[in-house]
Write a structure and sequence with these properties.
46% of the residues lie in helices and 13% in strands. By secondary structure, it is an alpha/beta fold. It has a 9-stranded mixed sheet. A hairpin with a 4-residue loop joins strand 3 and strand 4. The protein is globular and about 85 Å long. The relative contact order is 0.13.
Length: 481
C-alpha cells in the first residue's frame, strides 16, 4: 500500500502509467477492436484527477486566506479593499463558473464544506473527480468485458450519477442474476472506484478523505462509509504476537517431503500449511555453501472476524493500513525463537495477508537491519502501497486479475499509478473467475504450472541463490498473545 498534496487526506504514489509503455507484464489478450483504448482513458482520468486535486487545493488556499489574521489586519487598514477582495474570493468559491462551493480546510472551510455536502452542493473538484472515476471504470471495462454487461453497467452508471437507491436496486439485480460471488467478482476491478464515488456523493461529509486518497492513487487510511481512521484498528488487534514450535501433520509432512526451491512448490506448501495460524521456517544449505532461510506465511482465515491467531479478518485490515501488526510481531518472534542469526539471508514468501505481512516486515528499518531480506514474493496480496526499507530487497508480486484481494491497496486495473521500476509484477487472467476460488493458492499454482509457466521460470531464475539442500522445515503456531 506517501502523503502528498491537498492536506493529510490526499496521498499519491509517484509513478504514473504512460500511455505508450505497458505498465505490467501481462498475458491477457489485447482489447477487442472498437473498444475504447484503456490507456488513453486512464491518461485522461489522470488529467481530470490532477485538475480536481488542484481545484481542491485552490479552494483550501482561498478559504485559508479569507480566514487568516493577516487579512483581518489588512481589513482594518483598508476596509474597502478588504470588502472587494472578500467578495471576489467568495464569488470564486461559490460561483458555478468558479469552484462551485469549493470551500474546505480550516474550521470555517470545513464547516462550509459540511454545509455544502449535506445540502447536495457539488463543487467543481467533486464533479471533476467523479468524471475521473467514471473514466477509470470505462477503462477497466475494456479489459473486463463483464463490467460492460447491462446489469453491471446499470450499477456503475447509478454510482457515477450518485443515485444510491438505483445503485442498490442494480446491485440486488446483479446478485439475483449472477449470485453473490460472481457479482462480487464482476465489480471487483472497480471496487475502489465505486467506494470512492459513494464517499464523494453521499451526504456524509466525514468520509470524503477515502475518496480523495483513492483519486490520488494512495492507500486510504479511513473507511469509506463512516470515515473512521485506521488508528482505531490497532485497538482491535493489540496482541504482542508469539510463535510456538509445532509438528507437521501427516498431510503437511508429505507435501514438505517433496518441497524444493521453486515458485509452485512454495505456493503448494503455503496451501498445505493452511490459514489456521501456522507458518513455516525453512533452512537451506545452498549450492554456494551459505545457509539461507525461507519464511512461508499463509493468508487470512475468513471463518471468524477475529480469532486467536494473527491470520484473521481484523488482522487483514490491520495489515493493509499499518505495518506493525500482531502478524509481523509473531513473525519476528518466530525468527528469534528459531535462532536465525542476525545478518542471515532471508526470503519471505506469502499468500494474501502473508504477502502483505512480508512487505510490512520489509518496510521496517529495524527488521531490514537485523536480517538481509533478499526477496519478498507476494501471491495475491495488496502490497502496492508498501515500500521496502532496503532498496536491494527484490519484490515480486503475482496477481490473478480475477482476484479481488490485490486491488484492496487502491491500485486496481484502472489505476493510473505504477509500481516502482525495480519491482517485478506478473499478472494474468485465468479460468478461476469467481472469488474466492480466484484467490486460492491452488488457483495460482495451477496457472503457474500451466499457461503461466513462463512466469514460474522467471521467478525461479530470480531466486536461484536459494537452490540447495533443505536441512530443516519447522512449522510454528502463531498466536496473538
Amino acid at each position: 500500500m506517501t502523503p502528498q498534496v491537498v492536506d493529510e487526506a490526499t496521498r499519491r504514489l509517484p509513478e504514473r502509467r504512460r500511455p505508450d509503455v505497458p505498465a505490467r507484464d501481462e498475458s491477457a489478450a489485447p482489447p477487442e477492436p472498437g473498444r475504447p483504448e484503456a490507456e488513453l482513458l486512464i491518461a485522461a482520468s489522470v488529467l481530470l484527477a490532477d485538475a480536481a486535486l488542484t481545484a481542491r487545493q485552490a479552494g483550501a488556499e482561498l478559504t485559508g486566506a479569507l480566514g487568516s489574521w493577516r487579512f483581518g489586519l489588512e481589513a482594518l487598514r483598508r476596509p474597502s479593499w478588504a470588502l472587494g477582495a472578500a467578495y471576489s474570493c467568495a464569488k470564486a468559491l461559490t460561483s458555478p463558473s468558479g469552484l462551485g462551493f469549493g470551500a474546505n480546510g480550516g474550521l470555517v472551510g470545513e464547516l462550509a464544506r459540511i454545509a455544502g455536502s449535506v445540502t447536495y452542493r457539488r463543487p467543481a473538484q467533486v464533479a471533476m473527480a467523479v468524471d475521473a472515476f467514471a473514466l477509470r471504470i470505462k477503462a477497466a471495462a475494456a479489459e473486463h468485458p463483464n463490467l460492460d454487461a447491462p446489469a453491471a453497467r446499470r450499477l456503475t452508471d447509478a454510482m457515477v450519477n450518485g443515485n444510491r437507491i438505483e445503485a442498490l436496486r442494480a446491485l440486488r439485480g446483479l446478485v439475483e442474476l449472477l449470485g453473490i460471488t460472481r457479482a462480487l467478482t464482476t465489480i471487483s476491478p472497480v471496487m475502489m472506484e465505486l467506494l470512492a464515488l459513494l464517499g464523494l456523493l453521499d451526504e456524509n461529509p466525514v468520509n470524503d478523505a477515502f475518496s480523495w486518497v483513492t483519486l490520488a492513487g494512495g492507500v486510504p487510511t479511513t473507511d469509506p462509509f463512516l470515515g473512521l481512521p485506521s488508528s482505531l484498528i490497532k485497538y482491535l488487534n493489540p496482541g504482542p504476537g508469539r510463535a510456538e514450535r509445532t509438528e507437521p501433520d501427516s498431510i503437511l509432512a508429505k507435501v514438505l517431503d517433496t518441497s524444493r526451491n521453486d515458485l509452485v512448490s512454495y505456493v503448494n506448501d503455503i496451501g498445505a500449511i493452511g490459514n489456521h495460524g501456522l507458518a513455516l521456517l525453512r533452512r537451506i544449505r545452498c549450492a554456494d555453501g551459505a545457509v539461507r532461510h525461507v519464511l512461508l506465511l499463509p493468508g487470512t482465515s475468513f471463518a471468524l472476524l477475529s480469532n486467536s491467531t494473527p491470520q484473521d479478518v481484523i488482522g487483514a485490515f490491520d495489515g493493509c493500513l499499518r505495518t506493525d501488526t500482531t502478524y509481523t510481531r509473531a513473525a519476528r518472534n518466530l525468527l528469534e525463537r528459531a535462532g536465525v542469526p542476525a545478518g542471515s539471508d532471508l526470503m519471505i514468501v506469502g499468500h494474501s495477508l502473508g504477502g502483505l505481512t512480508a512487505m510490512n516486515l520489509a518496510s521496517d528499518p529495524e527488521f531490514s537491519a537485523t536480517y538481509r531480506l533478499t526477496h519478498v514474493i507476494a501471491v495475491g496480496s495488496p502490497i502496492d502501497g508498501k515500500r521496502p526499507a532496503d532498496h536491494t530487497t527484490q519484490v515480486i508480486s503475482l496477481v490473478n486479475k480475477h482476484d479481488v484481494i490485490p486491488t484492496l491497496d487502491g491500485r486496481g486495473p484502472a489505476s493510473p499509478n505504477d509500481i516502482p521500476a525495480g519491482w517485478v509484477e506478473l499478472s494474468w487472467l485465468d479460468e478461476s473467475y469467481d472469488y474466492p476460488l480466484s484467490h486460492a493458492p491452488q488457483a495460482y499454482s495451477d496457472s503457474l504450472r500451466g499457461p503461466m509457466a513462463h512466469h514460474r521460470e522467471r521467478v525461479n531464475g530470480l531466486i536461484r541463490t536459494y537452490d540447495g539442500e533443505i536441512t530443516g522445515n519447522q512449522p510454528y503456531m502463531l498466536r496473538d498473545k
